[in-house]
Amino acid sequence: MTLKDKSVLLFDLDGTLVDSVPDLALAVNQTLQQLERDTFDEATIRNWVGNGALCLISRALSASKNIDNTLPEALVTKALSLFLSFYQDCVCVDSALYSGVKETLTALKERGYRLAIITNKPETFIEPILQGLALTNLFELQLGGDSLPERKPHPLPLFTACQQLKVSTEQCVMIGDSKNDILAAKAANIDSIGLSYGYNYDEDLAVHQPNYLFDNFNELLTVLDGVGELA
């Protein structure tokens, strides 16, 4: 079985294409050190990633996945500014592509698909990561978590991508590793493919019922045959 009449693939970034936790963890801990607060191991921080920079640093300040709503706003604002500055300096040092990502993206491009990035990561960090991991020139569009008034799981980024690429929702597939991706796709009435290996807080992504759920990125090729003359 394949996804028919699709021409545009909307990809999440962190946890889907790239394991960015090593660099995120470094920047988080540098921030906490600057604020004279306890630091955390990479495995702990890994479980806080996936909802954007503000949520990540708020969890770090809370020392928990559950954000402390009593955190002073001034502290959160200062911490976020520090984090973004530190992360800018290490955005693609130890981050790495997941297995099969570059080869599969290249194959999909050759099959005629148009590729786009829709991530909750701040927009300014997208291009440095793509450049650092040699993924430039593959994506027509890049939308970050601060590109629009709303971010995933809100459908606005997906609708905006459709508008900017001049395609219908029926022509698109959302591909990601977390419930934010699947919920955004459902809200936009877009088919979705879930990937089990990313940042989903140990929750079974199958609960959110993506159209397909794969353990390996290259399995995308089994349901995406090609478009146009390549189909």
Automatic annotation (TrEMBL):
Catalytic activity field: 2-phosphoglycolate + H2O = glycolate + phosphate
InterPro entries, per database record: HAD-like_hydrolase_sf (IPR050155), HAD-SF_hydro_IA (IPR006439), HAD_2 (IPR041492), PGPase_prok (IPR037512)
Signal peptide: none
Entry EC no(s): 3.1.3.18
The protein's name in its UniProt record: Phosphoglycolate phosphatase
Organism: Colwellia asteriadis
Pathway this chain belongs to: Organic acid metabolism; glycolate biosynthesis; glycolate from 2-phosphoglycolate: step 1/1
Record: active site: D12 (nucleophile)
UniProt entry tagged with the keyword GTP-binding: no
Top-rank taxon: Bacteria
Binding site for Mg(2+): D12, D14, D177
Family: Belongs to the HAD-like hydrolase superfamily. CbbY/CbbZ/Gph/YieH family.
Record key words, sorted: Carbohydrate metabolism, Hydrolase, Magnesium, Metal-binding
